[in-house]
Design brief:
This protein is mainly alpha-helical. The protein has two domains: about 90 residues, no CATH class; about 55 residues. It contains eight helices and four strands.
């Protein structure tokens, strides 16, 4: 697999003028365009820059993996204005919500329900000492090889709930 470093991505964006090769959409902020790897299904093939192209996120979603089909796909142009409705929908609520959450996080506030073992006090996470003992025991049981179902039964949690807890970065601080 090709390593798309920031330097290589910028080089490819610049090469194609920050323009989607299918619809002609231009995005110099690189928010709605991606570097597309042509022929990504050929695992034993050496990737080169000529197998990299720029597509908007919408065109990329529908781009075929195989090079022979990709070239035909790119040659069948579409007006980027036709896709603008979909682009606007993608920029909508989710980006605003994410930005708001990042701003709240920067201010030390926590948005949402507190993870198990914590409580919210004035919008900030605070450790609940009693529940945190259970969290530590769950991590210890997992480290000692106890399965998710067994841990869940032991502490009255579901196996997916235990898995989510073990993967939550908040506990790895």
């Amino acid at each position: 697999m090709i390593d798309l470093t920031a330097t290589l991505r910028k080089k490819i964006f610049t090469k194609y003028g920050y323009t989607c090769q299918k619809c002609g959409f231009i995005d110099e902020n690189c928010e709605d365009i991606v570097v597309h790897v042509v022929a990504r299904d050929f695992r034993d093939r050496l990737y080169t820059e000529d197998l990299l192209s720029v597509l908007c996120k919408i065109c990329d979603k529908f781009a075929p993996a195989e090079e022979k089909y990709f070239n035909t796909y790119i040659s069948e142009k579409i007006d980027s204005n036709v896709l603008e409705t979909f682009r606007k929908a993608g920029r909508g609520t989710s980006k605003r919500v994410k930005k708001g959450m990042q701003e709240a996080h920067a201010e030390g506030k926590y948005i949402g329900r507190a993870p198990f073992g914590y409580i919210l006090v004035n919008g900030k996470l605070t450790i609940d000492e009693e529940k945190m003992k259970i969290v530590k025991a769950i991590f210890l049981d997992a480290k000692n090889g106890l399965g998710l179902r067994e841990i869940g039964r032991k502490y009255g949690l579901s196996a997916p709930g235990v898995k989510k807890m073990l993967e939550n970065k908040i506990y790895q601080l």
